[in-house]
Amino acid sequence: MLEAYAPILILAVVSAVAAAGMVIGSHFLGPIRPTPAKRGVYESGITPLGNARERFSVKFYMVAILFIVFDLETVFLIPWAVTFRALGVSGFVEMLIFIGVLLVGFVYVWKKGALQWE
Question: What is the pTM of this model?
Fold first, then answer.
């Protein structure tokens, strides 16, 4: 039974060695030309102002969590759409209920003001 997994193990080992070889090779063989632009900030291209340890507003986290929740819920639409014809009317009704629950949750969050960016 283990011999069935041997090609997968060989592929994983070869891939890991190739990736490590490329990273190590580029480190030793690549040109090192430091410039002021390379030494500057690169995250969003904006020079940071103030302390990096400032607190973020709770609104930022709420919007991020809500985005993740609603984004993950919409992923369930893809397998449903693929098997739409095979599910028939009951599958359609179940998805309408699912979307209705999502819509109720979205309206609740909207009415509570969680999406207001003040």
Answer: 0.49
